[in-house]
Amino acid sequence: MWGCVMSPVGALLRDLETTMARGSTDERAVILSRLTDLFLATANEMGEDQVGVFDVVIGRLARAIEMRARIELAERLAPVPNAPSGVVRQLALDEIAVARPVLVASPRLSDHDLVAIAAAKGRDHMLAITERPDLGEPVTDFLILRGGRVVTHAVAANQSARFSRHGMGVLVMRAAQDDALQATLGTRADIPGDLAEQLLAAAKSSARRRLEASLEPSLLGSVAGAVERGAEAVSAQATIGDELGRFGKALADVKALDEASKLDEAVVAQYATSGAIEHAICGVATLARLTLPATEQIVFGPDRDAVLLVARGMGWSWETTRALIGLRKGDGKSAPVLERAKQSFRNLTPVTAQRVLGFLRMRDGAQSDSSAPARP
User: Fold this and answer.
1) Which residue of 62, 142, 156, 195 shows the fewest CB atoms closer than 10 Å?
2) 242 or 324, which is more confident?
3) In a domain, 251, yes or no
């Protein structure tokens, strides 16, 4: 059988030399597609030496084709158990649109490969890795150490991921100050008994904080209560008053539109484009089910990717997202910043963005917050 395969390979190799020397990008893509077809048709019968022939040839072609062809190659090779390992690693280190299929699904990537790719490429690649089934301890340890909060939440939510004692301990420690992470870890059945006790203690502490917070408005609304609580309560009351004063009219306008079922992405985009900051913030908060302070932080805070994640999670267009970025002073109008943001926005998958938005809502308690009306 292999002799029958090598004859077409030999012909393709001859075509490859000619195409690499004089052919166009489209011609190279055609040769690559033919090679991939041939490999997939015979992959089950090949040994590693035979796969190695395709590894060299496909790898060479893959470096000389456009992104759309590389994406197609990654999608075709991702589920193949004996896909050319060098090509798979090459694709995994490519831009996230190319890398994602193999990062999520290719069995050819070892734990060592995944850690090296995460270290070299950063958050988008890490988020794709968190979706893999049966992540090993070396990978989860690295993602927890280097991935940041969003990646940590994503890997904790992967029910088939395995964690070392140290990695799980770090997660439980962070959950003490992170209600959303507590909720995620609470769904896992693999937490050691002593760490589960720590997580339960943290959850009780968080529940107590939420109860105190839920009582705060009524206490602050009472003059007698404010006097009894002293200067701290008076200061807090003034802060809340300032916040309501600044957003009062905008929030009333937005609530009226929402109650009339006229609040949507287009309205938010119009607010942002016209520079109506308070109305835009109230619109995003209401539609995304987030609080006003959290929404302000998302739009104006130091994490520039936050507004991209929320907008992508809501299914909004790049034009709406760009209008929200434009509300930022300074770099909100910068062409290079907008171009980088546009690329990041396009690279974000809706599933990942929706997961992150869910984490933000859990952390924020937005559905019960009076400053962000809950929507059905």
Assistant:
1) 195
2) 324
3) yes
Average pLDDT over residues 80-105: 96
Residue 55 belongs to some domain of the structure: yes
Residue 207 in this model has a pLDDT that exceeds 80: no
C-beta separation of 271 from 299 below 8 A = no
* Residue 56, domain member (yes or no): yes
User: How many separate domains does the chain show?
Assistant: 2
Q: How far apart are CA 296 and CA 306, in angstroms?
A: 11
CA-to-CA distance for 166 and 157, rounded, in angstroms?
17
Full domain range(s) for residue 31: 1-109
Please tell me the pTM assigned to this model.
0.56
Two tokens, residue 269: 């985009």
**CB contact set of 64 (below 8 Å; sequence gap of 6+):** 20, 25, 28
Domain boundary among 109, 135, 167: 109
**Residue 140 domain flag:** no
Distance CA 3, CA 8 (A): 9
Q: Helix (H, G, I), strand (E, B), or coil: what is residue 170? A: helix
Beta strands, E only, 50-120: none
Q: What residue type is 298 in one-letter code?
A: I
Q: Tokens at residue 204, please?
A: 């009780």
Tell me the helices (H) and strands (E) count for the chain, helix number first.
22, 0
Domain ends where: 86, 109, 132? Answer: 109
Residue 224 has pLDDT above 50, yes or no: no
